[in-house]
Amino acid sequence: MVRYQGGKSFIARQIVAAIVAREGERIERYFEPFVGGAAVAELMAARAGSMALGDARADMVLMWMAASRGWSPPGEMSRERYDELRTAEPSPERAFAGSAMSFGGKWFGGYAEGNNGTRGSALAGRDKVTAAGERLAASRISWHPGVDFFDYSSPPRGTVAYLDPPYEGTTGYGDGFDHDRFWKVAESWVLDDVHVYVSEYAAPPGWRSIWAQRKPVSMSAATNQDFRLEQLFVWGDQC
Q1: What is the mean pLDDT of the chain?
Q2: Burial class of 145 by CB neighbour count within 10 A (0 to 12, 13 to 18, 19+)
Q3: Bigger pLDDT: 238 vs 141
Q4: Contact at 8 Å (CB) between 174 and 87?
Q5: Mind listing the pLDDT tens digit for each residue in 126-142?
Q6: pLDDT tier, 98 (very low <50, low <70, confident <90, very high otherwise)
Q7: Please, which residues have CB within 8 angstroms of residue 78's CB and are 6 or more apart in sequence?
Q8: With 0-12 CB in 10 A as exposed, 13-18 as middle and 19+ as buried, what is 170?
Q9: What angle do CA 31, 16, 158 make, to 5 degrees?
Q10: Could you give the number of structural domains in the chain?
Q11: CATH of the domain at 82
């Protein structure tokens, strides 16, 4: 599970357990349009007959696609290369730089030296990406790099859709995201018999929480951190 701001690496197993408790051990079709750091997707891969994985940030999808086919990130990365990739075209290496080699997992949020220096950060990130890629290879996956959530039509009936949108009230990746429209689309999918699960801090009326856990807002190791309540929502009496 690569470190990525807004990622679910610390709570992915609990989210998967909550979904599996309702859906069963085997899921025929799984859809995740905000795949990001792939923390949930990599754990779902062994359970899903087929998966559709996408993200508006094309680089992240390209990285997971490559990793599932045997690509490994570089074992070291210079500050110069990091800066070059900041303005480069989308690629697996750019995704690695922008997430694993960036301070706090924030997209190109500053070159991360790491506890063991630059090479230590790269090696740790490489191992995580490589392991996740091996897990993703366990499922038949259709990839959707650079596809905006609002460009998708409703998935096939019976699909399990895990939605991890930019959280309302946060900055950066979620700037300009239409949260009201998102919830309306998610509800329409439920009415089309899609099994929708949404990660957020809060949800509009009609949605109910089936799992919750406190999570630090900052990814730093500092003490006295702020915490928010991560929740997993379903619509009404959705089965």
Answers
A1: 89
A2: buried
A3: 141
A4: no
A5: 999 999 999 999 999 99
A6: very high
A7: 118
A8: middle
A9: 40
A10: 1
A11: 3.40.50.150
Can you tell me which residue has the tokens 């039509």?
153
Residue with tokens 């460009």: 151
Q: Is residue 2 part of a domain?
A: no
Query: How confident is the model over 4-13, as pLDDT tens digits?
Result: 555 677 899 9
In a domain, 142, yes or no: yes
In this prediction, residue 225 has a pLDDT band, given cuts at 50, 70 and 90, of: low
Global pTM value: 0.90
What are the tens digits of pLDDT across the range 69-96? 999 999 889 999 999 999 999 999 999 9
In angstroms, the CA 42 to CA 45 distance is 5
User: What is the C-alpha to C-alpha distance for residues 164 and 8, in angstroms, rounded to an integer?
Assistant: 9
**Secondary structure of the chain in the HEC alphabet?**
CCCCCCCCCCCHHHHHHHHHHHHCCCEEEEEECCCCCCHHHHHHCCCEEEEEEEECCHHHHHHHHHHHCCCCCCCCCCHHHHHHHHCCCCCHHHHHHHHCCEHHHCCCCCECCCCCHHHHHHHHHHHHHHHHHHHHCCCEEEEEECCCHHHCCCCCCCCEEEECCCCCCCCCCCCCCCHHHHHHHHHHHHHCCCEEEEEECCCCCCEEEEEEEEEECCCCCCCCCCEEEEEEEEECCCC
Give the domain range for residue 190: 12-235
Band the pLDDT of 116: cuts 50, 70, 90.
Answer: very low
Q: What are phi and psi of 45, to 5 degrees?
A: -55, -40
CB-CB neighbours of 28 under 10 Å: 14
